[in-house]
Amino acid sequence: MDVKKKDIRALTKDQLRDFFVSQGDKAFRGNQVYEWLWQKSAHSFEDMTNISLQTRQMLTDNFVINHIKVDQMQRSSDGTIKNAVRLHDDLIVESVLIPTPTRTTACVSSQVGCSLDCKFCATARLKRMRNLNPDEIYDQVVAIDNESRLYHGRPLSNIVFMGMGEPLMNYNNVLKAIDKITSPEGLGMSPKRIVVSTSGVPKMIKKMADDGVKFKLAVSLHSAIDDVRTSIMPFNATFPLKDLREALGHWYAKTKNRITYEYVVWRGINDRKKDVDALVEFCKFAPSKVNLIEYNPIDDGEFQQADYKALDMYVNILEANNITVTVRRSRGKDIDAACGQLANKNKA
Ligand code: SAH
What we know:
tRNA processing, Methyltransferase_A, two-stranded parallel ribbon, elongated, 34% helix, ten-stranded mixed β-sheet, cytoplasm, TIM Barrel, alpha/beta, 2 domains, binds S-adenosyl-L-homocysteine
């Protein structure tokens, strides 16, 4: 990468318009280039065919477009696609396309690696290398949208921030990316079709609520008992359940948006009745539903999916307490694309 040249996509539309005026051109040229960059996702200035050759050269001399590159695409037998995405500094993140009969969902990454230390997650072992910038997040969505059209004959319908990283530890950039995804000048998607999944950073959940965001919130809960949660998600010692609960109450009061709790049931960890009872109590705090997700093994057996009896107990007790619960099957396991398996395995 040429260090002297600026990343043109770091400029707002107004900054781009001002730049053209400073070059003695019309502000309108800024709109045209902006449209190429965002609506048409141009990878190079040469693609901008309604811009004069001379102007394209001037842009090439001054700027770069740090577009992501899909380095490797893997297709699962169940239709799931995993992209290994190369960033301008050669770091790699992964994103996933998950098709179902009624929707196509993009699962995108927000950080290279992750700063949190969930014991059951492969990404946690990579440690956090850096935050993704807004256009690197946006590009992942565009790449998946293109693949969805190509392989499934329909555009992307939903986005989940459940790839690598903790989105609320890269909040500003995630928000900017979502602004672009939902803006008519970007992809024009409804924020209601976007889910941000967090391991639960109370201060940031409150901030999101105060910022009036319109997307949905999912929390990776996995246990409603502090000791248990801290043993599998050690940062829970810093952000205990009491603080998380209070932040979620604030979220619901401000947004009136129901919260989804993601929850894996592991043998010998959270498969007792008292674990379910604690979850029921936690769910009473704010309107919510529970997604019981299948464990995707990443290690040599330290964690094991609980048996069906334990899952049935969860479903029965939650339903008896009028809490909506769904049991989710994993997708894309054969290509290491399922929850918690994203770890750049092929690039190791
Ligand atoms: N950092 C965010 C988003 C990334 S993880 C978060 O924690 O929510 C996306 C989901 O996959 C989370 O619910 C996470 O707890 C879950 N997950 C992580 N490792 C997993 C594994 N090995 N099997 C199943 N789910 C896993």
